[in-house]
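We store chain and fold; thus.
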Amino acid sequence: MKTRQNKPINLLLISATLLWCGFIGYQHHRYTADELREMYSKPASEWPTPLVDEGIAWKEIAPIPPSPYKDVDSLRPLVDLGKVLFFDPRLSSSEQISCSSCHDPQLSWSNGRTVAVGHDHQLGQRNTPSLFYTWAGESFFWDGRVASLEEQAKVPVENPLEMHQGLEDLPAKLDQIDGYHPYFEDAFGDGAITVDRIAAALAYFQRTLEGRTSDLDKFLKGDKDAMSDEALRGLHLFRTKARCMNCHSGPFLTDNKFHNLGLHYFGRKYEDLGRYQVTKDPEDVGKFKTPTLREVMRTGPWMHNGLFHSMEGIMNMYDHGMSRPKPRPEFKDDPLWPTTSEILKPLGLTQEEKHDLIAFLESMTTLIYRMPRPELPQ
């Protein structure tokens, strides 16, 4: 006797099976530390294929190339001028705030604060990014509002929350300082002081800022013992189970793109619409630039708003697929309601795996960088 087929139930079972297969489709193989050391000591072309979503452009993790702007004789006068300007508080209207007030070399060219303190003790709106490796940047600020360091250099000077200095008045202000004339003559061939020349000097100084050689770079260059077992496990997790290379790849561990992590606080305190404020494209609401992970363990607190002081907490957030806030009733039909990136998925990391990932981040963080402050022109 033929049994009667229940097609709806069969279809439901098939769908459930497919979903389950998709969930378990990636099986993380646990290698020993010795196996990983041997595996990653080979050329990068022989490493395991990273777990990256289809359609995402990525680059393999690699040693940091040297800045093409550092120790170049023809650029030295321009860089020297930029260094003096960077540390000079007279670029602010109060003559109390310099670029180095927010970008401290001993704090990895950031400042250790949630947001910076600027003119008249006003608080900034976003966390201060590090200036390490800006020479390789494709856009600047968390929302990517400018495409060059020359344009970037002008923004904080005239920002009323930061240095509060009218750009149109700055050249005449510096022209009254006799000690600046030789610097501009050496850098540009004559002593004329202009906004564009000030910005160019600041930009070229920033292009020389590099960290020391990290354990990760030593390992990638052939020192097989430069990384700990924990950091090696973290490297493998970073490339595979943890899915980090969907956004953080290449020598600088960034894709230079913009993503929504669900931390926009739409309609609440700390609301920040991110990239949308530049493009006015609704698809960009809540998106922020992927920062480099170089020196990351010294540049906290983290994220665009600086509200996250614990890397362990950040690991927990990524492990859960980050935040996916649901709109309150008044925002249910709002066309600007942001959607968290689909790249972010629950990861199922163990506590040991989270600690290994942090060890990997430590491996690309170097000793504190100290730069003597220059004597200012008088």
